[in-house]
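Example: Glycerol kinase 5.
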Amino acid sequence: MASVRNGYRERLVLAVDVGSTVLRCHVYNQACDVIGRAEDKIQVLNNHHGCAELDPETLWQQFVGVVEGAVRDAGIQLTQVASLGISTQRATFINWNKKTGEPFHNFISWQDLRAAELVQTWNSSFTLKAVHGSCKCLHFFTRQKRFLAASLINFTTQHVSLRLAWVLQNMPEVKQAADEGNCCFGTIDTWLLYKLTNGSVHATDYSNASGTGIFDPYLMSWSSFLCSLLSIPISILPPVQDTSSSFGIVDPSIFGTPIPIRALVADQQAAMFGECCFGVGDVKLTMGTGTFISINTGNTLHTSIAGLFTDFSDTEEMARSVPDCGGIYFVPSFTGLQAPVNDPYACASFMGLKPSTNKNHLVRAILESVAFRNKQLYDTVLRETSIRISQIRADGGVSNNGFVMQMTADLFGQTIDKPKHTDMSSLGAAFLAGLAVGLWSSKEELKTLRKSDVVFTPQAKWKDYETSMNSWEQALQRCSNWYNDHGGIYAA
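Written out as structure tokens, the predicted fold is:
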């Protein structure tokens, strides 16, 4: 509970994290202690056509509910809140009527696969091949990295780009509104900001914009080239602001008092900031709904060229109860596979099932697949950058599993630091919002607030896992392009 000293009420920060599975609100004091919290489960609407959507009104009510719940839990007054920071899942978007504020459709999740065929068509098109060739020539003569990046463009379903193009092609109401200048586009952060400010602010930040696939990080603006290529009107896109800056004030009609909104940030960048990965070569590994690895490249842009259990906490003991996975391999591609595989048509599967297989083998195979995917991502980072890794910090719900963490440390051959506070997206949003209002003075002060829980050091060598990982990669190859070869995604 927030303290009162000599009539002075402690200044606090609210941080809301809209994740892929859970929406959380935390109340932080200046010592970075969580004094109040509330959460609600994200309701994803799925169907057999590969659609994954969120109902905007439900999400809004949940957002308001967790803020009010966290404030009650903390036993504070909202007038004590110095600022609000919001962290959100990336690349989930919506379009709404500029005049009425009414959505044209549900949020289309980053996990949505309805544009998979459009992605495949574009990636194999003559137009994209021509773009690649032209930009290679431009890079050769100018040596500008933005042309190198353009020469390597390949679309994925995870980016907003082709999912938004799909909407404009298949939802006439959205296309008409865009043509008439009556359409607003936004990722979750933008839409929540619009709602919180009662329609007065349409904006996003650089971290969320960069996850759309239509933002040019070299020019720090929306890509007029990509928008033109995909027939996306730039007029519907929000202005882009610094992540830690003034995004307006929460309308008093919502919570009864105005609250400064001082940070919008994408979840992975928020976790990076929450982990205090401020130095070049600092690595952040988040294991939650998906696995994400991030490296601090400094001020230089890097051009990338590439029901078995009732409680998750039981899985570590189950995995350790058997000496190995018994020749069972699990491919975790429930919505395709991202880098370095980049196959939206891959299927999830167990390989190598035998009469002697028991549930402990299956659980161990699942956990090993997480560590193997971590290794794939880590090796991709090492291949693509010449930056020396200085430290690795892990967060997300899966980081609480000691088996996965130890195996990952072994595969990396590196020490991995897990913090006491694993909700790093929320903490990062709080840090950014607090810095903006002077609750904390510097990044150096933030470093003193981060506390380690467990440090995992390598206890085995990569060679001990090489044969097993090679077999797992063979299983992955067997699952590749499955839905494309068998009648489309989720074909009946």
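The chain has two domains: 9-270, 277-485.
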